[in-house]
Amino acid sequence: MSRSKDGNETPLMKQYNAIKAKHPGALLLFRVGDFYETFGEDAIRASKILDIVLTKRANGAASHIELAGFPHHSLDTYLPKLVRAGNRVAICDQLEDPKSVKGIVKRGVTELVTPGLSFNDQVLDTKKNNFLASIYFGKDVHGIAFLDLSTGEFMCAEGKLPYLEKLIQSFAPAEIIYSKAAKKTATELLKNEFITFHCEDWVYQYDFTYEKLKSHFGTANLKGFGIEELQSGTIAAGAILYYLEETEHKEIQHISAISRIAEEKYVWLDKFTIRNLELVFPQHDGGVPLIQVLDQTVTPMGSRMMKKWLVLPLKEKGMIEERLNVVDFFYQNPALIEEIISPMKLIGDLERLISKVVVGRANPREINQIKRALKVTLPIKELLKVQKNPTLKKLSDQLHPCEFLLEKIEKELKEDAPMLTHQGGIINDGVDEELDEYRGLATSGKDFLVQIQQREVEKTGISSLKIAFNKVFGYYLEVTHAHRDKVPQEWIRKQTLVNAERYITPELKEYEEKILNAEEKMVGIEQRYFQALVQEVAQFVTEIQQNARVLGTLDALLSFAQVAIQNNYARPKISETETLEIKEGRHPVIEKQLPPGENYVPNDIYLDNDTQQIIIITGPNMAGKSALLRQTALIVLMAQMGSFVPASYARIGIIDKVFTRVGASDNLSKGESTFMVEMTETASILNNLSDRSLVLMDEIGRGTSTYDGVSIAWSIVEYLHNHPTFRAKTLFATHYHELNQLASDFPKIKNFNVSVKEVGDKVIFMRKLKAGGSEHSFGIHVAQMAGMPNPIVLRASEIMSHLEHDKSVKKSKENLKSIPKNNYQLSMFELDPKFQEAKEMIDKIDINAISPIEALLKLHEIKKKIEG
Question: Fewest C-beta in 10 Å: which of 46, 405, 703, 844?
Answer without folding.
Answer: 844
